[in-house]
Amino acid sequence: MQEPEEKKIALELLETEQAYVNRLHLLDQVFYTELMKEAKNGKTVPEEVVKMIFSNISSIYQFHAKFFLPELQKRMENWSSHPRIGDMIQKLAPFLKMYGEYVKNFNKAVELITVWTEKSLPFQELIADIQKRKVCANLTLQHHMLEPVQRIPRYELLLKDYIQKLPPESPDRNDAEKALEMIFMVAKHSNTAIAEMERLQNLWEVYQRLGLEDDIVDPSNELIKEGPVQKISTRNNSTSEKYLFLFNNMLLYCVPKVIQVGAEFQVRLRIDMDGMKVQELNDMQFPHTFLVSGKQRTLELQAR
């Protein structure tokens, strides 16, 4: 008898899950545990750094090793009498939201490994020693750490395949479709967390370039565009270099600092979006010019 296609995919899910749990074991029980032990002895890096690198890997490992994998194994053993996995995945899918924290932390973790590998020789040697072991299969710590980031999209693909192969009248169809929807939401949750983190990171960098002025620093602001412009002086028909930052709620008119210690720009004027008008000008002498007028004042500017 040929195995039904959907069973082959369910078995692939089980096999990849077993391999994945081994990878999580390596990250949590080998890398994290051994680095933590050395950190406690004060030999490699501060304990805080090790915790920051591995984020919530222990919770992820426990969840897969104690719940997800055993449940999946049970299902595959009873496949002939009870061929379904949709309801089980649906029940456990909400726990996958904890990946949000790990994924959000991933870039920072990789950066910390790089920084401390250069800073601390014992840290570098311990990681190199673990990486030489057979269990690491000649792959780096960073490579193994990428696995949890890729796991949720993998579930999504396998479940999609599984649903496609299910016979139309299968009792598992409804549950499997709901499970897929939940996993899709978890993936979206992760991606939203990353996007928000990147937005705040970029915003913070802009604030640093502006000298962290109190009345400007606000996490809810969104940077829309930035770039150099020329300020036109009608008095003596000349131009001078200025720089604009356009946010969702204000336009910052800045001058580049000559001595760039600390901030890169000095904010000369803040024009609120509320009541601001922009008007294009047809000036033969200065092409690409426009007027920006707000409650505060009016500027005549020239773009590149």
Automatic annotation (TrEMBL):
<dbReference type="GO" id="GO:0005856">
    <property type="term" value="C:cytoskeleton"/>
</dbReference>
<dbReference type="GO" id="GO:0005737">
    <property type="term" value="C:cytoplasm"/>
</dbReference>
<dbReference type="Pfam" id="PF22697">
    <property type="entry name" value="SOS1_NGEF_PH"/>
</dbReference>
<dbReference type="GO" id="GO:0007010">
    <property type="term" value="P:cytoskeleton organization"/>
</dbReference>
<keyword id="KW-0677">Repeat</keyword>
<dbReference type="Pfam" id="PF00621">
    <property type="entry name" value="RhoGEF"/>
</dbReference>
<feature type="domain" description="PH">
    <location>
        <begin position="222"/>
        <end position="304"/>
    </location>
</feature>
<dbReference type="InterPro" id="IPR001849">
    <property type="entry name" value="PH_domain"/>
</dbReference>
<feature type="domain" description="DH">
    <location>
        <begin position="5"/>
        <end position="193"/>
    </location>
</feature>
<dbReference type="InterPro" id="IPR035899">
    <property type="entry name" value="DBL_dom_sf"/>
</dbReference>
<dbReference type="InterPro" id="IPR011993">
    <property type="entry name" value="PH-like_dom_sf"/>
</dbReference>
<dbReference type="InterPro" id="IPR051092">
    <property type="entry name" value="FYVE_RhoGEF_PH"/>
</dbReference>
<dbReference type="GO" id="GO:0046847">
    <property type="term" value="P:filopodium assembly"/>
</dbReference>
<keyword id="KW-0206">Cytoskeleton</keyword>
<protein>
    <submittedName>
        <fullName>FGD2 protein</fullName>
    </submittedName>
</protein>
<keyword id="KW-0862">Zinc</keyword>
<keyword id="KW-0597">Phosphoprotein</keyword>
<dbReference type="GO" id="GO:0005085">
    <property type="term" value="F:guanyl-nucleotide exchange factor activity"/>
</dbReference>
<keyword id="KW-0863">Zinc-finger</keyword>
<keyword id="KW-0963">Cytoplasm</keyword>
<dbReference type="GO" id="GO:0008270">
    <property type="term" value="F:zinc ion binding"/>
</dbReference>
<dbReference type="InterPro" id="IPR000219">
    <property type="entry name" value="DH_dom"/>
</dbReference>
<keyword id="KW-0479">Metal-binding</keyword>
<dbReference type="InterPro" id="IPR055251">
    <property type="entry name" value="SOS1_NGEF_PH"/>
</dbReference>
